Amino acid sequence: MKNDAIGKPLGTDLDQLRALTDEDIVLDEDSPYDPNDPFAVEAFWANAIVTSGGGVATTLATLHRARGPGRKPRKQALTVRYSPEVIAYFKGTGQGWQTRMDEALKEWIAQRLR
């Protein structure tokens, strides 16, 4: 299976997708998305990330969060111990829970500095 720019499996053969013609693509009649509905189209594109072109490789490279040459990591790796309740709460918020925990700690520090 192929991997994207950040090492996650794509689960799709991109060469097969690129070879499809418009006639090969079957629209799902049960889909709530209607390409003829301007509100649906606007909602669909509201969260789009626009790239300068170049296909899938360029888009994946744009989405990849590389530090760039000569740049140091913005965060430090550290081993800490938290109570099970704290871990359960933050993990329960879904993907990105460590970032939310970091933001909560920064907010706590900001309040203490006032």
Please tell me about this protein's structure.
This protein is an all-alpha fold and 114 residues long. Helices cover 42% and strands 0% of the residues. The protein starts with 13 loop residues before the first helix and ends with a helix.
Unreliably modeled segments: none
Beta-strand level of the residues, as a percent range? under 5%
Major sheet details: none
Counting DSSP E segments of at least 2 residues, the number of strands comes to 0
Binned, the helix content reads 40-55%
Identify the overall geometry.
elongated
**In whole angstroms, how far apart are the ends?**
52 Å
Order of helices and strands: HHHHH
Tell me the number of structural domains.
Answer: 2
Based on helices, strands and strand pairing, what is the structural class?
mainly alpha
Tell me the radius of gyration.
21 Å
Mean pLDDT across all amino acids: 79
Counting H and I runs of at least 4 residues, what is the number of helices?
Answer: 5
Short description:
The chain has five helices and no strands.
Please describe the structure with a list of short key phrases separated by commas or semicolons.
5 helices; elongated; mainly alpha; 114 residues; 0% strand; 42% helix
Layout of helices and strands:
Blueprint: H1 14-19, H2 38-45, H3 55-63, H4 84-91, H5 97-113
